[in-house]
Design a protein that fits this description.
With about 400 residues, this protein is of the alpha/beta class. It has helices at about 5-10, 15-25, 35-40, 50-60, 65-75, 80-85, 90-105, 110-120, 125-140, 145-150, 175-180, 185-195, 210-215, 215-235, 245-255, 255-260, 265-275, 280-290, 315-320, 325-330, 350-355, 355-370, 385-390, 400-410; strands at about 165-170, 195-200, 240-245, 275-280, 305-310, 335, 380, 400. The protein contains 24 helices and 8 strands. Helix 4 crosses helix 7 (about 90-105) and helix 12 (about 185-195) crosses helix 24 (about 400-410). It is globular and about 65 Å long. The termini are far apart.
Amino acid sequence: MQTRLSAVFLDTPDGQEADRILRKCVHCGFCTATCPTYQLLGDELDGPRGRIYLIKEMLQGAEPSRSTQLHLDRCLTCRACETTCPSGVRYGRLLDIGRHHIERVVPRTLRERLLRRALLAIVPHRKRFAALLAFGRMMRPLMPARLRAAVPAPRPAGAWPAPRHVRRMLVLTGCVQPVAAADINAAAARVLDRLGISLVAMRDGCCGALAHHLSQDGRAREQMRRNIDAWWPEIERGAEALVVTASGCGAMVRDYGELLRDDPAYAGKAARVSELFRDVSQVIAQELAQPRVTLEPKSRPEGARRVAFHSPCTLQHGLKLRGLIEPLLQRSGYTLTSVADGHLCCGSAGTYSVLQPAISRRLKADKLAALQADAPDLIATANIGCLMHLASGSDRPVRHWIELLAQAIA
C-alpha cells in the first residue's frame, strides 16, 4: 500500500511504525472473512480493511470525525484478522496508534467520558472492584434479570500450597480475577506444585491492559512500572518464569518490553519480564513433554465429563497459543465437544461489553449457541473476562480450564 503520511506525524516513532505497518497491507480482504464485527454489520468500515483505510487517511492529514471514531471503537481488537492476514500486518498495533491519535483530536460526549473514567477508576483497583462486586451481590435479588446475570456468585478459593520446591515461578495476581474467581490462581498453584514448582503470588495489580486499550497510555505505563517493581526482587532471586492465568493479561505482559522500550529506566527490566512471561498452559505442556513427568488424574471426573472449550482471542490470536489446552483436558479425563467457529470472539473484549453492549450481546449469543450446541456439561475458557461474560448468559457452568485440571488430579 502506498502511503503519504503527514510530515509532522511521520517524524514520530508511532508515525514511522504506522507507516511500516500500512505498507505491508495489500488490501486483499482475507481479514474480512474472520472479522466478527464485519460478519455482524456487513459494513466495510467495520472490518479491518476499512479501518486500515480510515487510519491511513487520518494519518495522512484527513480530518477524523465522530464517524471515524465510532468505526474504530467498534473493533474488538480480537486480532483474528492478524491470524488470517497473509502479509503479516500488525493490525492491533496500528489500531492502537490510530485510536490514540483520534482520542486527542475528536472530543467524546460527556456520557462517554464519564463511563470511561468510571471504568478506569474502579476496574483496575482490586479493593474498589471488590466493594462494588460485594454491593452488587447484596442487591442481586432486586436487580433486573439481565443485570443480575452479570453479577458472578461468590466462589471460595481452594488451598494454595506453601512454597516447598527449589523451582519457583511468579504469578500475576491481577485486579478482577482474584475478586471474581479467587480459585483460578490457587488451582494453578496446586497443579504446578504436583509438577515440582512453587507458584509465588506477588503484591501486584492491573496489568495495564484496560488503560492501554482506552488510550490512556500514561496510566498504563504507570501500572506496568509498578508491577515490574513488585516482581523484580523475586526475578533477581532467580524466579524461573512469570506465569499468567488470564490470557488477556498475558497478551499485555508479553508486550511490556515493546511498550516500555523507550523508557530508559525500565526498558531492560520490561524486556526481561516479557522474556520470562509464560501462559500457564505453556508451563504445564512443557513440563509434561519431559521424560518421566506425569500429571495423571486420580479418577475420572464425575458429573462434568463433557466440556466445550472456548479459546479466548487473546490466547489464540494475541499470544498465538493454539492446541495446548485441549489435550491437557482430554488427558485429565474430560471429553471435548465440538464447537463451530471457534476463531470468533465472544464479545467480552475487556471493556467492550460495557462500551458496545448491543454488539457484544449479539456476539455472546452466537458464541453460546456454538458452545452449547453439542450438549456439554460445562464450558471452559482461559480468560477471566470471557468467563464472566459467557457465564452471564449460559445455562451451564463456566469455569477456567485450570480449575478443571486441578479438580481432576486432586
